[in-house]
Specification:
Helix content is 20%, strand content 24%. It is built from 2 helices and 5 strands. The chain binds iron/sulfur cluster. The site of iron/sulfur cluster has 15 residues, from helix 1. Iron/sulfur cluster binds next to helix 1.
Amino acid sequence: MDVWIDQDLCTGDGLCEETAPAVFMLRDGIAYVKAPNGAPQFAGGSTSMVPIPDQLLDSVLDAAENCPGECIFIEA
Ligand code: SF4
């Protein structure tokens, strides 16, 4: 499974970072995903899709379900 964020829809509330800090981070009030090696993907959008480590899948799914902007996308 992979995850990416549509930054155009992000409200910047930070819920994703609180829920799964190994995968999400905020910069300048907008959320971005991080690669499994921790590298932030500041290009954003679907071109910044990263694989979700198995042990983090539940927390990433929780973050996506609770995202106020409905802008966390998970793809098989
Ligand atoms: S939970 Fe959604 S809206 Fe909130 S900061 Fe994360 S990606 Fe943006």
